[in-house]
């Protein structure tokens, strides 16, 4: 599976910012570090959703992706799908469910739930879906309900000229599961309404198989967005400010 995306990004600037005031840091010495990460992460979501140029975070709801590409080849689906001027709605309702933090192994896992996301844009598609040929270009509207996302990442620490250490992400993976999905692709088969209506009906009747086949490539593409956002912040905020070495006051 291959995927690609282009996200509007900001100019890189060498900096040593502290975390924003709406995201208090969690001490690396906190025995309840994971609970702290979830609590502070959840309270930051409403702020981050609107974007924060200081931290090179774009608006996240809708999240604009200039181009989302999915090229997937399996026994049932051999498909080439591009969605340009893609907008993803619904991230503002994300719930931060759990965190698993291992600072010694430099490995973190985060779990999120999102009630529904809606993807709108202009698509171009060719190939086969569950043995049926599909082709067309036009407006796309895809809704995916009950998203469960696990994002995993590893990092190394890099010391910069200012003496501070920064997290450099070496590996990341996004896994997701979902409930019902709905598809509406306008202008399939050069505008042949009968064929297009039948294909949309087929996609919606077989939503589980379609999302299962496209899932790995879609997860790869969305994971790249996560990685870019985290990299933007980690390039600006030193590790010492993200997980400070400070005593923890017992509650």
From TrEMBL:
Give the matching Gene3D superfamilies.
Answer: Haemolymph juvenile hormone binding protein (3.15.10.30)
Matching Pfam families? JHBP
Q: Name one GO biological process term.
A: circadian rhythm
Q: Which organism is it from?
A: Cuerna arida
Name this protein carries in UniProt: Haemolymph juvenile hormone binding protein
Q: To which protein family does this belong? A: Belongs to the TO family.
- Judging by the UniProt lineage, the source's domain of life is Eukaryota
Tell whether Signal is among the UniProt keywords: yes
Q: Which UniProt keywords apply?
A: Biological rhythms, Signal
Q: Where is the signal peptide?
A: 1-16
The protein's matches in InterPro entries, at most eight in alphabetical order, are given as: Haemolymph_juvenile_hormone-bd (IPR010562), To_sf (IPR038606)
Q: Name one GO cellular component term.
A: extracellular space
